[in-house]
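Q: Convert this sequence to structure tokens.
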Amino acid sequence: MANSAINNVAGFIILVCTTGLISGQIRYSVYEEMEEGALVGNIAQDLGLAIPQLSARKFRLISDDGGQYMKMNVENGILSMREKIDRERICGQATICTISFKIILENPLAVHRGEVEILDVNDNAPAFRGGTIALQIVETMTPGVAYPLESAEDPDVGINAIASYTISSNDYFNLKTQRTDDGIIIAELVLEKPLDRELHSSFQLVLTATDGGTPQRTGTAQILVTVVDNNDNPPVFNQNIYRSHLRENTPLGTLVAHVEANDLDEGLNAELTYSFSKLTSQKVRDLFSLDPDSGEIRTEGVIDFEEAKGYSLNVQAVDHGSPPATGHAKVLVKIIDENDNAPEVKVMSTTNTVPENASPGTLITLVNVIDGDTGENGQVSCEIPKNIPFILQTSSMNHYELITSEPLDRESIPVYQVNIEAWDLGSPSLSTNKTIQIVIADINDNVPRFSEPSYNIYVMENNAPGTSIFEVTAIDRDLNQNSYVSYYLLGNRIQDMPLSTQVSINSMNGTIYAMRSFDYEKLKNVQFHVQARDAGVPPLSSSTTVNVIILDQNDNAPVIGSPTEQSGSAAVVILPQSAAPGYLVTKVMANDADSGQNARLFYHMQSSSDPSVFNVGKNSGEIRTARKLLESDATTQTLVILVKDNGQPSLSSMVTIQVTILENITERIVESENLVTNREYFSDLNIHLIVIFGCTSVLFLVIIILLISIKCKQDGNSNQEYNSTSCCCKPGNSDDAFARRAALEETLRYPGTGRLSRVPDAHNYSVCLSPESAKSDFLFLKTCGTPMSGLNPNIA
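A:
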């Protein structure tokens, strides 16, 4: 076809099928030999896609057969020719020639199938292989004998293929044509009238082959006919056309057909030799062999149904006459398909990655299964294992969609190796396995997790500021950015103090630092919250409680609260000479600001003027007399008491106590100047107890005074004849009262003896000093003997 004719049809493009969904298909038809860049179709428009979506969704074109005959413009969605297409080179003489392609879009993944049918143009003229056909015909040959002629070849198909043969005008020969079952036109030269070698020894004819295209194209060959003498009977085959069926992959040497011809002559004129005629192609000569003597045709090469469905063999039988005569026949070999091609699995996606939050039914990739066989041998089935969250869904003939069937979890299984098994229905069946890897893409669906809901951190007080005290770690099961964890402190203040002045945290690794030196006596614990936050979008977080427990360090020595030294002088304690062994002299009261074993105090007698006189309770701090005081003992005893805690190392304090022993007192209470004046050693509870005890004592004293007053009044009314005061002093009896007081004082000079002393008065009564008086800070009196009538025997 002329270039102008091609240009005229270059714009003829047929859109057979428009848009479809994932399993839809679009089909275009274009003529071969179109120029580069020629329009094929507008894919974006036919699929209903907006132009901006093409780039955003990574629009791309993939050809099934690997050829790159077309190109796609992402900016406008136009499908155009990448190069000129020669239909005969791609498809040979196949009736229908198509180029399949896939249109793949991502985010989300979608696959569309398309086909472009390449229409034939009459761009090839018929041609004869040799250009000259030589025939030898005996002059005595009977009219009506037909001589097969070589067929012309035209790569075009359909109407553009060879449509007719003609020969140049002459008086002796005519042309006979017939069409075979497979559409091939066979031309034969027929002798119309007897030949006379003496008149015409040769003929030159022109054989013309014409196709059916528009405009028509022709090809010619010269027919050289030589008229020979004698040998007037040519060989004749018993069949004009031999038909044979041959399975592909037949072993070499397999008998295909047995041709046989007869010659009515005798002798050398009847001896025949079989061979392939010049009409037989070299390809056929490579696949088949013909025995020149027996006429057996056997396989010489590998027969492949997928390469050719059948072959046409032109054979001839030539006798040995002079000149030799030739007979012709045709052998048609039909190839029977064998199941010799296993299915081929093609995956139509470049990346098999799916996010773990993909909903069931999400398309992952398109699978195409191809089998080069035909019939049942070419029918395929395909499946994947059952124990994975994917299914293989049929979309069309030999096309499958791999989709999700269950929710995915990357943290459980990050990668799937999906084995696709395909098999055909041939006997025996052939199968193919192909494994594709499906990567589950991570999404931020896991919060960082601390190993514990709360942490207790033990920190010794007096730590160095800025010291690392602990490290919290949170694990995020996600991947990459979604697993990057940062740490933050929650809250602003702790016990009215800024949190930042107490602790800080390294946001990268969770290391917690103490920003100050902790003092156990001021702060026992610091509690705050730590948040772990990932770097996903949106970020996810969790928190934990951190409780910093300050541990006590023995950094406080015991503080002695009572008795206290005054202005550097020893504390003074008064002790009666009459104190019995075990008498409580005083009690050392000390306090330690530490806690636990660091605050457990022990009391020791560091030094003493006379170690035999006093001892101190190791745990109580009570100083008691160890023996009875002697007149020979020094009236002033100096004691040094050591108060030591149980810390490591131990800290201690000392107090010096001066004990003054007085002979003529039973009880002396140290005045307020010897009391502890430091308020920090008394709690509010102690003050309340002192107040309650004081109020109770005053009330008790008032009641006693009232009772005594009432008793005295009653005694004055009932005993007027005695003119004395049993318990009250009256005017006019001062001498008697003084005598009684003197006697009482005399008795009191010897406390604890149990001796009886009488007061020289008519109304006196006996009292004894109780032994408990020597062991207590109070004086206890009791009556001795039988009380006098009218007196209370329990008056103390």
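The first strand starts at residue 14 and ends at 17.
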